[in-house]
Amino acid sequence: MIGLTVLGSGSQGNALVLHNNEESVLIDAGFSFRELRRRLKQADIEEEALRAVVVSHEHTDHVKGLDVLKRHWDLPIYCSRLTGETLRQRGSDLGELNIFTPGAGFNVGSFHVNAFTIPHDAIDPVGFAVQSKGMKVGIATDLGHASQLVSYHLSNSDILVLESNHDMELLQASKRPWSVKQRIMSRHGHLSNNASMSLLQETLHERTQHVLFAHASQDCNRYDLIEKSMTGFLEDLGRSDVGLKVARQEAGLDTVWAESDA
After folding, report:
1. What is the CA radius of gyration of the chain?
2. Who's near 211: CB < 8 A, 6+ residues apart?
3. CA torsion angle for 5, 6, 7, 9 (degrees, to 10)?
4. pLDDT score of 221 more than 90
5. 61-82 pLDDT, tens per residue?
């Protein structure tokens, strides 16, 4: 059995927790330490069960609470070398970091983590494929397009977490500057709803039990629009058996669990 709790997701903060029956791992810490603790408590996740923090990239909405978290909990922090160097250049006091190499796996307690390179406008951004007790979670929440490498690492997942950042019409109609719109739509920006559908079609597996859509823009997307379109898409694929959730910025989601048929 493996579980996943999205504590919140969007341009103002991102964090999620992976669980098994023994321990938990925090993926990103994009909220203040106080807010992270509040959301963990709200999700009924024990702080003592956390074994580490694994960082996807250096953008503030993924690392905002990292410094204070380290001071209070002294959890090991895992990140790539370039991400770690960037955080230190900002003045972050994170102590000794556990450096991973994208493309190579590493263990955090009973979780085996594969970090893979994703196309995003950060220093060394990665997605994650995490396995524990024969179960797999695939996570890719900040990427401008879905490369073959991304699809490969997300395949065969019991739980998928995919970015569904913007609706193209809402983005074009928004008051954002054209330069910002271009960045979002670029191959190193963020996935649109339609692009997320295409990635889902490529990576959905017969073992997939849950799909969560994350990092939705609050002014260039709508949660109900994502849910409606993705639900219809899954039905068209004959997969109404798959649980679907859309991550919110203002609050976390209930934990989803995937269980082995074995």
Report:
1. 17
2. 159, 160, 161, 162, 200, 204, 230, 234, 242, 243, 244, 245
3. 170
4. yes
5. 999 999 999 999 989 999 999 9
Q: What average pLDDT does the chain have?
A: 95
Sequence-ordered alpha helix ranges (H) in 7-124 = 33-42, 60-63, 66-73, 81-89
How is residue 151 written in tokens? 């699809």
User: HSE on the CB side for 190, CA within 13 Å?
Assistant: 25
Q: How many CB atoms within 10 Å of residue 82? A: 16
Q: Are strands 243-246 and 210-214 parallel, antiparallel or unpaired?
A: parallel
Residue 177 burial (CB count, 10 A): 9
Fold of 2-258: Metallo-beta-lactamase; Chain A (3.60.15)
What are the residue ranges spanned by the domains of the chain? 2-258
Q: Is the pTM of this model over 0.85?
A: yes
C-alpha 101 chain-centroid distance? 18
Written as six digits, the tokens of 225 are: 């629009």
Token pair 């994170």: residue? 94
Q: In this structure, what are the phi and psi dihedrals at residue 137, rounded to the nearest 5 degrees?
A: -120, 130
Rounded to 10 degrees, what is the CA torsion of 1, 250, 213, 175?
Answer: -170
Whether the CB-CB separation of 136 and 158 falls below 8 Å is answered with yes
Average pLDDT for 224-251: 95
